[in-house]
Amino acid sequence: MTGADMPHRPHEEPARPRVLVISASMGAGHDAVARELGARLADRGAHTVRTDVLDLLPAHTGAALRSFYRASILHLPLLYAGIHTAFLRSGTGQLPGPGGLAALAEGRLSEVVGRERPDLVVPVFHLAAQLTGGMRAKGSLRVPSAVVVTDFDVHRQWLHPGNDLYCCLTEDAARTARKATGRPAAATGALVASRFLAPAPGAERWRRTFASRAPGRPVVLLAAGAWGAGTQLAGTARLLAGAGYLPVAMCGGNARLRARLARVAGTVALGWEDDVPGLMAAADALVDNAAGQTALEALAMGLPVIGHRPIPGHGKAGVRRMAALGLTRWAPDPWSLVDALDRVADPGGRGGPRVRGAAAAELFARDTTDLLFSVCSRVPATLSGAE
């Protein structure tokens, strides 16, 4: 048969990479990373599916784990600090791990993988990283797993030698992952939504709101996460109001915290807020207590971040690591907090362009999806060679 005799075949598009992202509904930060990662992958033509590792656990186990963690953070911080010390702290040597808990999710993850047939699985939570690492080590997960580490202080439960690749916030974190696992690890920066990397249209509305409440006072945001967790937030608000600032507390879904802080004279207490970019654009500084997604969003917008009274465990470790890396300032006591704010707050500069510091700019100079796409294409020889 000659070429002229061969039947015509329509042009075949190359197969779209399929990526399964495993998040965890522990607060809002991990889900925010998963959504942004999925959006970026989809923009590049990938088919993405997201699942929650807590939903992969047996009935009620995931919900119970989330409730226990939330209660510990909000009401039993010393208990959570002990758990972090026993199971999660960074360093060398062996610690008890969540292998048994992660193993409970293996069956359901196998079902999801069999149904979705991904080219790559991407955990963005440490329990999910233990799950995929264990399955890769046993051969029950036959596609690569690339862990997106969302912590600055990389604790041990992120790290399993069965995983193929680690995408970390900084080179400091990547070195930790390489040393602990023997696997490839790279600094791929932070994943924040594009609205935090562009001008915020709602900023002027917030500026008018704040000017009507406290004309001329620099605005300081108090971050408390999706669950409204924090240490002595009312005391911090009173301190800032007395020092000539307008504290604006971001209480998330914690209605009790919002009501309590609303009674602090000179304080604005907010619930769940959708226009966080506008809020940050109208503020002069952010007081952070968790080194999580809110701090990264502030850094993306060029808003100065000061760590103060962090939540225990990973919050305390992350806040201090961010300051050590030159990304933020660390204020160990009330007086150093006021001093730091006096140095960075610039009410006259609100509305003008902000410039990220060199360390912060490095966080947003790379795109994690570049490396993940290369994994989908089976480009890095190090992955196959490491198995």
Would you kindly provide a written description of the structure presented here, covering whatever features stand out?
This protein is an alpha/beta fold and 387 residues long. It folds into two domains: 18-189 and 366-386, Glycogen Phosphorylase B (Rossmann fold, 3-Layer(aba) Sandwich), CATH 3.40.50.2000; 200-363, Rossmann fold. It has 18 helices and twelve strands. The strands form three sheets. A six-stranded parallel beta sheet has the order 9-8-7-10-11-12, with helices on both faces. Helix 3 (61-75) crosses helix 4. The chain is globular and about 60 Å long. The two termini are 45 Å apart.
Short key terms for the protein model shown above:
387 residues, alpha/beta, Rossmann fold, 2 domains, six-stranded parallel beta sheet, three-stranded parallel beta sheet, 44% helix, 12% strand, globular, disordered C terminus
| Structural class computed from helices and strand pairing | alpha/beta
The strand order across the widest sheet is 9-8-7-10-11-12
Regions with pLDDT < 50 over 5+ consecutive residues? Answer: 1-12, 92-98, 348-352, 379-387
Let me know the largest β-sheet: 6 strands, parallel
| Alpha carbon gap, first and last residue | 45 Å
How many helical stretches? 18
Could you state the order of secondary-structure elements as H and E?
A: EHEHHHHHEHEEHEHEHEHEHEHEHEHHHH
Cα-based radius of gyration, to the nearest Å: 22 Å
CATH class of the largest domain: Alpha Beta
Morphology = globular
Tally the structural domains: 2
CATH topology tier name of the largest domain: Rossmann fold
Report the strand count: 12
- Can you say what the CATH homologous superfamily of the largest domain is? Glycogen Phosphorylase B
Fraction of helical residues: 40-55%
